[in-house]
TrEMBL record:
Lineage: Bacteria, Bacillati, Bacillota, Bacilli, Bacillales
InterPro entries tied to this protein: Man6P_isomerase-2_C, Mannose-6P_isomerase_type2, NTP_transferase_dom, Nucleotide-diphossugar_trans, RmlC-like_jellyroll, RmlC_Cupin_sf
PANTHER family in alphabetical order: MANNOSE-1-PHOSPHATE GUANYLYLTRANSFERASE (PTHR46390:SF1)
Domain annotation Mannose-6-phosphate isomerase type II C-terminal: ranges: 338-441
UniProt KW keywords: Nucleotidyltransferase, Transferase
Residue ranges of domain Nucleotidyl transferase in the record: 4-267
MF terms (GO), sorted A to Z: nucleotidyltransferase activity
Designated name of the protein: Mannose-1-phosphate guanylyltransferase
Length: 456
């Protein structure tokens, strides 16, 4: 059995900490058994490793999240990268062609799909393994895993079984999306399950579907023609059109930590970052990524979350609505993790004359490097404030250290490798400060060194 972890999302439900490049699964607000702060994706990947599933897994994600995944899980994790976001059916189709044409997976191999961020106990993954047996024994087209409800939730979709019975699995009759409470109570009486987004199929089921649609089944070809895939969810494009579906119940602990009120239930501390909560305050949390302290006095059941992207103060019951209010907010992410480290935007100014100034603080991990790149619409000034490294400028190498100030003219090729952990302040000045003005020659430091001379 192969697994594909779906990592997507627009990053709005846990605003302001989450954004388009740092969705909820990358927020380091949970603690592991070693008392280290970890993200949801790190927690899930560790569970996959414990259950001997990580080596059989790939992650399907958008190009905006690749650096974050590499930063948190390491560069060796197989990643299927969507060239653009087009919903879950295109993402799953692309992952299927990757397994088929790149990893040469047999067409009869069972492929399981699951979100990258469920908050579950270890035995959840044993049940995931059971999907293979259920699919093969039932001869169904799809096998789903559903959670036995603990209350009549109006927030989850339901898998409703038919009256036909089987000892090893349920035969699916239909689905109900986010019912009202009274309807949810009726569904639970019919042994309906919460739909947790976990399902499996034989690889040939999706490959044959692509063939029927006249779409490429070769990964590289589908990448080029990705815009031809229907921009639909997998549920709409496949599940609703499939008649032979079975489901496995899972009666263990499961949570969707997709909103502040559910996430704070699993956080190890009421205060993350600089903050103070009065002793009389009940069930309130502070999550603070800023360097200034937050003090919360006498406001119960509240979440205060602060990051360079903004500040949220909300009653926990109202916090799921934050997506409605910030979905139209535009602008660059103010904090990102990259394959080489991280950066935080300190200030971004647009002047009436047309020029812009962007100030960032960057952290580069020891042994990592920025790509060899150039810009045609901006110049940069770097001030090294911590550590030392090797700086490449127009095919010349120089040693740099804390206290050095580096001027990078327009159209100059430049890169930096950290020999120790480094931090620097970067000031960009130009007519248009956008990611599209980055022209990379290579990300390999070995290639950079081979093209450069060392200044003595």
């Amino acid at each position: 059995m192969r697994l594909v972890l779906l990592s997507g999302g627009s990053g709005k439900r846990l605003w302001p900490l989450s954004n388009d490049s740092r969705s909820k699964q990358f927020l380091k607000v949970l603690k592991n058994s070693e008392d280290e702060m970890v993200s949801m994706v790190q927690r899930v990947w560790r569970q996959l490793e414990k259950n001997d599933l990580a080596s059989k897994s790939v992650i399907a994600t958008s190009i905006a999240q690749v650096d974050m995944i590499n930063s948190q899980l390491g560069a060796g994790v197989p990643i299927v990268t969507e060239p653009e976001r087009r919903d879950t059916f295109p993402a799953i189709a692309l992952a299927a062609t990757y397994l088929y044409s790149v990893q040469n997976t047999d067409l009869n191999e069972v492929v399981g799909m699951l979100p990258v961020d469920p908050y579950v106990e270890e035995r959840f993954f044993n049940r995931v393994k059971d999907l293979e047996t259920a699919l093969l024994d039932s001869k169904a087209d799809l096998a789903l895993m559903g959670v036995t409800p603990t209350f009549p939730s109006e927030k989850y979709g339901y898998i409703v079984p038919s009256e036909n019975e089987s000892d090893n699995f349920l035969i699916v009759d239909h689905f109900k999306e986010k019912p009202e409470r009274s309807n949810a109570e009726e569904l639970i009486e019919k042994n309906a399950l919460w739909n947790c987004g976990v399902f499996a199929f034989k690889l040939k089921y999706i490959i044959n579907l692509l063939n029927d649609k006249g779409l490429p089944t070769d990964y590289k070809e589908l990448l080029i023609n990705y815009n031809l895939l229907p921009e639909n969810s997998f549920d709409f494009e496949v599940v609703e059109k499939t008649e032979n579906i079975v489901a496995l119940p899972y009666d263990g602990s499961w949570k969707d930590l997709g909103t502040w009120n559910t996430l704070t239930e699993e956080m190890a501390s009421n205060i993350t970052g600089k903050g103070l909560i009065s002793e009389s305050t009940i069930n309130s949390h502070i999550v603070n990524e800023l360097d200034i302290p937050i003090t919360l006095l006498g406001i119960d059941n509240a979440i205060v979350a602060a990051s360079p992207d903004g500040i949220l103060v909300a009653d926990k019951e109202s916090s799921p609505k934050v997506k409605e209010y910030v979905s139209n907010m535009q602008g660059r992410p103010m904090y990102e993790e990259r394959r080489w480290g991280w950066y935080r935007v300190l200030e971004h100014i647009k002047y009436q004359e047309g020029n812009e100034v962007l100030t960032k603080r960057l952290g580069i991990n020891a042994g990592k490097n920025l790509s060899y790149q150039m810009h045609y619409k901006r110049s940069e000034v770097w001030t090294i404030i911590k550590g030392e490294g090797i700086f490449a400028l127009n095919d010349q190498l120089n040693h740099v250290r804390s206290g050095d100030v580096i001027h990078i003219p327009l159209a100059a090729k430049h890169a930096l490798k950290a020999t120790t952990d480094m931090e620097l302040i970067e000031v960009q000045t130009g007519s248009e400060l956008i990611e599209e003005d980055i022209y990379r020659t290579t990300t390999s430091w070995e290639e950079i060194e081979n093209s450069c001379k060392i200044n003595t």
